[in-house]
Amino acid sequence: MADYDLLVIGSGPGGYIAAEEAAKSGLKTAVVDKGPVGGTCLNSGCIPIQSYVQNGRWALQSKQLAKYGLAQASDDIDFKALKARKDQVVQQNQQGILQIFKSNGIDFIEGEAVFVKDKTFKVNDQTLSAKNILLATGSRVLEPTIPGIEEVDYLTHESFFHMEDLPEHLVIVGASEHGVEFAFAMAALGVKVSLIEEKATIIPNQVKEVQDYVKQLFKKLSVEVIEGVAIDHLSSDQVHLSDGQEIGFDQLLLMLSRRPDLTMVKTMGLELDKKGTYLAVDENYQSSSPGIYGVGDLIGGWPFAHAASHEGIKAVKAILGQAEYPLDFNAVPRKMAVDVDVESFGLHEDQAKEAGYDVMSHQIPFMMNGAAAALEESEGFVNIISERQYGQILGGLVVGHGASEIMHILLAVYQCEGTIDELAQMVFAHPTLSETIGDVAKALVRKY
Ligand SMILES: Cc1cc2nc3c(=O)[nH]c(=O)nc-3n(C[C@H](O)[C@H](O)[C@H](O)COP(=O)(O)OP(=O)(O)OC[C@H]3O[C@@H](n4cnc5c(N)ncnc54)[C@H](O)[C@@H]3O)c2cc1C
Ligand SMILES: NC(=O)c1ccc[n+]([C@@H]2O[C@H](COP(=O)([O-])OP(=O)(O)OC[C@H]3O[C@@H](n4cnc5c(N)ncnc54)[C@H](O)[C@@H]3O)[C@@H](O)[C@H]2O)c1
């Protein structure tokens, strides 16, 4: 007889939320993890970088406050204290997850799950079997193939968070949203940062306005942005670029692509997606083997914690015989944090046109917003994309202070299949930043 109804491998946002859902629904559940509880998001992703971005924002704000005569700006940074705060935030969240396990009767087993056969795994010297398996093993940084890498004691987003002292000159290779967040967090504390991206522009998946916003910010923070140049090779303290430039560093941070480790999936004989990059699952998150499910970074889709968690819940619902619709790709919010938040969902204007919609798009800068002026937070804008026939909302982009919070107003209307007219009729309190959402909606209604 199986030991459990559900064995979850991986305690990241995909795994632990699924385990909670399963246990609350009466399934005897266990979670296995070989690393610290909470996975990438809690230990070396969303939470620690958010905490460091906040340090950067405080540093910039303290200079701003000093400008208005409210405080004394100081360039003295106690980085050990900032790291200690981050460690404390992480530990507090780890305790929270362990408490969820305890209060829901979930067994948590620390160790690497090694596939034995069928739905049986070995963890340390324990053999565990379950009626259902949920693989939530996430992704990891690809092994770099840059010539000379073996000579360099480089950092990844994991080892970066163990750093006790600020580097003098940090070179970051890879300028996706993540690379950009690390560059901001360090540059705002006064670290000299060089950011190298081999594609034509940094944050290649963002719209041009966001790319331009970040480039302008990095100019102010004296971040050296090097785009469209490949790395020829590395030496112990220099990056040698293909155009002959040599960039010295005392710390090198590689922010390259993350992909799932498919070793176990392959040993288990499970099918992969067409490109062979991710575990293939059906609309119920079930793999090619009945009773074995997969969620989160392991299966592709949006590589976000909230996507992993929702997929985990849906997989459990399927196990319970209460299958739901799969996650709506367009309803997953996407976040980047620099001095302000950059939050988006759904389609960009060009994507909406390509999809064949009669597109309306309107954008209003926060400069026009009274609350933003009073808060000295006039950076950024609200952009809403809708279609002309029914006023259906297709996407949104908010750049600005608190964007990651106020974006959820738009998302809620989208999720409830509300229209731009309904959004335009909503009463927003004054003075608030959210009023700009109402103003954009009114402008779109006038375009009908
Ligand atoms: C720098 C950075 C910043 C990010 N910022 C954000 C953000 O702001 N917002 C956001 O939503 N997302 C963010 N992400 C993405 C987010 O971290 C991931 O999408 C999310 O963690 C995926 O969850 P998961 O459960 O699929 O896997 P993970 O969180 O990676 O968890 C997988 C777990 O499985 C365990 N495991 C793997 N194999 C085994 C095995 N054989 N036995 C036992 N245990 C095993 C691992 O130890 C790990 O704990 C960020 C990522 C990075 C790298
Ligand atoms: N707000 C958002 O929309 C948001 C936030 C976070 C992540 N994401 C998305 O998540 C996905 C996954 O991101 P990821 O973290 O796996 O990484 P990724 O593949 O997007 O980023 C790695 C970056 O490093 C660059 N790079 C790789 N090798 C290089 C080299 N040798 N020299 C210089 N540059 C090099 C790549 O061109 C790329 O821009 C991406 O599609 C990203 O856009 C989106």
From TrEMBL:
Keywords: Disulfide bond, FAD, Flavoprotein, NAD, Oxidoreductase, Redox-active center. Gene3D superfamilies: 3.30.390.30, FAD/NAD(P)-binding domain. The keyword Acetylation does not apply. Residues 333-439 form the Pyridine nucleotide-disulphide oxidoreductase dimerisation domain. Transmembrane segments: none annotated. Its cofactor is FAD. It holds the Pfam family Pyr_redox_2. It comes from the Bacteria. Residues 4-312 form the FAD/NAD(P)-binding domain. PANTHER family: DIHYDROLIPOYL DEHYDROGENASE (PTHR22912:SF217), DISULFIDE OXIDOREDUCTASE (PTHR22912). Belongs to the class-I pyridine nucleotide-disulfide oxidoreductase family. This is FAD-dependent oxidoreductase. It comes from Aerococcus loyolae. The lineage of its organism: Bacteria, Bacillati, Bacillota, Bacilli, Lactobacillales.
